[in-house]
Amino acid sequence: MIRFSFRRQGSLWRPTGDDTREDWLGRHGLKKGIYEESLALVKRCKVMMLRNEGLTVTREAEEQMDIFLYGTLPTLGEAKECVELHKRRHKRKLINLKAWPTRKWPMPIIYKYDGAHTTEDVLMIEAAIKHWESETCIRFKRVATNATVTEQHILFTAGSTCSSFVGRVKKSNAFPQQINLMSEYCTQWLGFPVHEIGHAIGFWHEHVRPDRDDYVTVNMSYVYPRFRNNFLKLNKTLVDIDMSVPYDYGSVMHYAATELSIGRLHAIEPKNPLYLKTMGQRVGLSFFDAKLANLAYCKDKCAGVKPHVRCYRGGYRDPNNCRKCKCPEGFGRSQCRRPARANGGCRPTSSSIIYVRSRTEKCLWTRNYNQADGKGAYRHGDKCNWFLKARAGKKIVVRFAGRRFSTYCDYDSPSCFQWVEIKYKKDLALRGPRFCCNPGDIPKFNGKNTLTSESNKMMVIFNAEYPIFKINNYYTHDVPVHYMKGFKLCYKLA
Ligand SMILES: [Zn+2]
To answer: Which residues form the active site (predicted)?
Structure first.
């Protein structure tokens, strides 16, 4: 069996290896002189930023620095701006589109391919585009590789990197803005192209938000010196503060704990350790990712559209269908008050409100969990939402039960690619801690057996997306060699 793609990789690429600097410059539409000027400015800026963080910068580390800024390619203007900003020594996530309106794309965003991708790559990139279109009002229009385009557009290239500019980069209209998605590398999970398209739409990385220190600890010494700039906090002026949405561990723009780290140490440690595996997902846009993009691009889509629909739990009117709400994960049914309809064979039902009324434990579990070993397994696409509710003033306590716990795992990453998520915070729009992989035993909560809700409500979500596997000549999500038992979770009044 061959996997659809070879392995997960970081979202960055440096001009080394078999790609010459000239090849690379050409692919990014950069002139040598401009590249060198930008590089010198970026280096200067990075040294200033690192010193502002109290770090010493050796000559060697300085030489190793590359042109990437915050993990993305800066324009010459951005490189200059970076130096200006950090001269004054001060220190969210969407680019400030109000300050730079030209960074916003007109609709539809025209794009084409450079022709170097495989059919599988194109399928995955097309799926990522559909995903953006179904979650937001942003629209794309594909044109043929040899078509002449007079407007500014995106060109998907298949060089040796996963990289993109942030926002629409103002160049001549004929200049295609490149999103580089290395064949088979950057198309393994839907979330990779979704992430890079996100940069082009205007997203920075989540873990560099100006308020990130309240949510994560960044251990700079665990990061390879040449990558440290990808972990530096963004200056507030680079971000649209009005569009504040909460810090989101589950953002597709968040790095995983071990991304670009030395020896797989945790370069990013969540302040609440329960969130370790929520960070770094590359499955798709989170509720808040889509919300932020919709605020920036689709804000007035539903204004004045009747009937007015009220949305609960942080939901908002869906710009693709103003009669409905876009709901936080797990919720749905037009107003976000009830759990979203689910598929699959979770028990006792895949999607329901469960009233928690007593201190006698009851349980829920994945398809076939209770069958004898060798027979039980959940399937690709199983997705379940259980909304646990107790009387006002009461709290709910849960624990993992049964003898085993196992979900499919990508062992290269600490993030969950299939998971049970427990939203136990008061704000049910926020993503919850995720549990996944095969710990051999049943998971604990920071060393404890139980987890208690902050309010009288709790949302439990199960998500089972398998990557696509290639078996002989066909593609499938079924993974015959993987036997995943799933989980059993029991609840009662605290
Ligand atoms: Zn990125």
So the answer is: 196
Residues in the chain: 494
SS3 label, residue 199? helix
Cβ neighbours of residue 479 under 8 Å, at least 6 residues apart? 380, 408, 466, 469
Q: Are 420 and 487 in contact (CB under 8 A)?
A: yes
Distances (CA, A) of 318 to 22, 42, 201, 301, 339: 45, 40, 19, 9, 17
What is the torsion angle, in degrees rounded to the nearest 10, for the CA atoms of residue 411, residue 412, residue 418 and residue 423? Answer: 110
Residue matched to tokens 């059993």: 488
SS3 352: strand
199 annotated to bind ligand: yes
pLDDT at 402 over 90: no
> CA-CA distance, 399 to 489, in Å (whole number)?
6
Q: What is the DSSP string of 113-159?
A: E-S-S-HHHHHHHHHHHHHHHHHSS--EEE--TT----S-EEEEE-S
86 is in an annotated binding site: no
* Exposure b/e, 444-478, CB count within 10 A at least 16 = b: ebeeeeebebebbbbbbbbbbbbbbbeeeeeeeee
Q: What is the pLDDT of residues 165-194, one digit of tens each?
A: 888 886 665 568 889 898 888 887 888 999
Q: Which of 486, 482, 449 is nearest to 365 (CA)?
A: 486
How far, in Å, is the centroid of ligand 1 from the Cα of 209?
13
**Do residues 161 and 195 touch, judged by C-beta distance below 8 A?**
no
**CB-based contact 422:398 (threshold 8 Å):** yes
**pLDDT value at residue 315:** 93
Q: What is the pTM of this model?
A: 0.79
Question: Which residue bears the tokens 């990075």?
Answer: 46
The string of pLDDT tens digits covering residues 97-140 is 666 777 788 899 999 998 889 888 898 899 899 999 999 999 99
Ligand 1 mean position, distance from CA 206 (Å): 9
- Say which residue the tokens 């939901």 belong to: 315
Ligand 1 centroid–CA 251 distance in Å is 11
Q: Is 195 annotated as a binding residue?
A: yes
C-alpha 407/C-alpha 436 separation (Å) is: 5
C-alpha dist (Å) from residue 169 to 120, 153, 205: 28, 10, 17
Q: How many of the other CB atoms lie within 10 Å of CB of 9?
A: 17
Using CA atoms, how far residue 123 sits from 1, 112, 118, 119, 144, in Å, is 20, 13, 9, 6, 15
Q: In whole angstroms, how large is the CA radius of gyration of the chain? A: 23
Q: How far does the centroid of ligand 1 lie from the alpha carbon of residue 119, in Å?
A: 24
- Confidence band (pLDDT; 50, 70, 90) for 36? confident
How much distance in Å is there from the Cα of 311 to the middle of ligand 1? Answer: 31
pLDDT given for residue 413 in this prediction: 74
Cβ neighbors of 378 (< 8 A, separation 6 or more) are: 344, 345, 346, 366, 367, 368, 369, 462, 464, 484, 486
